[in-house]
Amino acid sequence: MASRGRSDSDSRRGFRLVDLSVVIPVYNGEAGLEALRADLVPRLESLGRSWELFFVDDHSTDGSFETIRRFHRQDPRIGGCRLAENRGQQNALFCGITRSGGDLIITMDDDRQHPADVLPGLVERIGEGWDTVYSVRRDGNRPWILRTGTGLTDLFFRLFVGKPAGVEIGSYRIMTRELADRFCHVRGEFVYISALIFRSAPKPRVCSFRYKAPPEALGKDSRFSLAGRIRLFGRLFRCYGPFRSRRIPRGKPYRVEETL
């Protein structure tokens, strides 16, 4: 894949410039990181592109960052950073998107509910000319909290953010660096990646497709409570809803404590 033209200031950042970055936010995920790496590396190798795994440790209280540090020592294509305080999944994703080096960026969760065998499909579809492609799990075994949250989020995004009715969204997606560059300058203490995507100008070309959940994900409880979902929806409404123009963004989405 041809590299996009980058300025000298981009190159001086010190991050690897590669064809594909996989950005994964991590919070207290130490127990599953080894299996996640074992899933992803062979699949990435099979794509025939230069790649990196970029983990963002959201100030975990377990040994997640030490595990990521060990991965980095074993393979310099695996790296990332640790945030100075816990900022939540979306802010951690934003950090990884803005600081990773790939011309294409895949975002996924750290709990292996996003199967590695979907990666080639994402890369293939983004090559058709889309700015973002979502891969979503939609089956009857999803926890009711996730189904309720999905319904609320879909309604909000169609009413206030301009999401096309036929597009399903989630945290497993691929986007171009050109699209990421349109929103990487935003400020504020809360960001939501899909809202930034749909509000970017010019209007992005977005599609989605469904995947079948892997056996290990079936029946798995969501790490988010109903109360957590309600709080998230409230923050979405304040920051991206109809009265967002009256709100002055303050602060920064993240602060980095250490980068590998």
N-to-C order of helices and strands: HEHEHEHEHEHEHHEHE
CATH architecture of one domain: Alpha-Beta Complex
- Kindly provide the radius of gyration, computed on alpha-carbon positions and rounded to a whole number of angstroms: 17 Å
CA(first)-CA(last) distance: 25 Å
Give the fraction of residues assigned to helices: 25-40%
Q: CATH first level of one domain: which class? A: Alpha Beta
Question: Mind sketching the topology for me?
Answer:
Blueprint: H1 8-11, E1 18-26, H2 30-45, E2 51-57, H3 64-74, E3 78-83, H4 89-99, E4 102-107, H5 119-126, E5 132-137, H6 144-161, E6 173-176, H7 177-183, H8 193-199, E7 206-211, H9 226-240, E8 256-259
Parallel strand pairs: 1-2, 1-4, 2-3, 5-7
Antiparallel strand pairs: 3-8, 4-6, 5-6
Helix pairs in contact: 2-3, 6-9
Describe this structure in words.
The protein is an alpha/beta fold. It has a domain at 15-142 and 164-186 and 195-215: Spore Coat Polysaccharide Biosynthesis Protein SpsA, Chain A (Alpha-Beta Complex). It has nine helices and eight strands. An eight-stranded mixed beta sheet has the order 7-5-6-4-1-2-3-8. α3 (64-74) links the parallel β2 (51-57) and β3 (78-83). The protein starts with 7 loop residues before the first helix and ends with a strand.
